[in-house]
Design goal:
single chain; 3'-5'-RNA exonuclease activity; four-stranded antiparallel β-sheet; Ribosomal Protein S5, domain 2
């Protein structure tokens, strides 16, 4: 019944390749089905002015889609002179999601910027960016700890995200583009590896949903995030 032939509770095939760029303090290429995102982490000995002198660290993110990451070419936002509303919303989501899994006191007064560049899009780019972004963050923090710049581990729990929705009247896990574009209900779930909620984005896209259906989607999300967290740990040796 799903276009891909997957079971209702089955994720797309996920792979995480680490250290894919030479210069970044942490990097990975995450593939969730046909959605591919390059995530890099940059360490800087500075923080935004509003927390300067507080002793707290900061994690932020930027997000973008390459011109041919989709079926037709999209114009680079730099060429348009400004970021679109969708881009701003997604990169803010990535930043606050990753910060939720960070002990900012332990991180110390430094900033880590996570850049998420979508190479190929087939649904769930924000979720893949959060999941891969944590891997890049983990690798960068590992370098801080190895150098002795950070004493205690500031990453308290993995952070991952997955989409769930109501497709053809059934709750499904990890929507690809054909499902996402036809889903009656679409949701993105950001959670920790231990199952704590960070953010839930859910909306009716043509049909309303019940509390029972929402609970079913939550159960699917917990399953998906647990699988992603296991892959994150495997990739980083955490």
């Amino acid at each position: 019944m799903r276009p891909s032939g997957r079971d209702l509770s089955e994720m797309r095939q996920v792979s995480i390749e680490i250290d894919v760029t030479k210069h970044a303090e942490g990097s990975c290429l995450i593939k969730v089905g046909d959605t591919h995102v390059l995530c890099t982490a940059t360490l800087e000995a500075r923080v935004p002015p509003f927390i300067k002198g507080s002793g707290l660290g900061w994690v932020t993110a930027e997000y973008g889609m390459l011109p041919r990451s989709t079926t037709s070419r999209m114009r680079r936002e730099a060429a348009a002179g400004k970021q679109g509303g969708r881009t701003v919303e997604i990169q803010r989501l990535i930043g606050r999601s990753l910060r939720a899994g960070v002990d900012r006191v332990a991180l110390g007064e430094r900033q880590i910027t996570i850049d998420c560049d979508v190479l190929q899009a087939d649904g769930g780019t924000r979720c893949a960016s959060i999941t891969g972004g944590w891997v890049a963050l983990r690798l960068a923090v590992n370098k801080l700890m190895k150098a002795g710049d950070v004493i205690s581990d500031p990453l308290v729990d993995p952070v991952a995200a997955v989409s769930c929705g109501i497709y053809a009247g059934q709750p499904v896990l990890d929507l690809d583009y054909p499902e996402d574009s036809e889903a009656g209900v679409d949701g993105n779930f950001v959670m920790t590896g231990t199952g704590k909620l960070i953010e839930v984005q859910m909306s009716a896209e043509g049909s309303v949903f019940s509390r029972d259906q929402m609970n079913q989607l939550m159960d699917l999300a917990e399953k998906g995030v647990a699988e992603l967290a296991a892959l994150q740990k495997e990739a980083t040796g955490a």
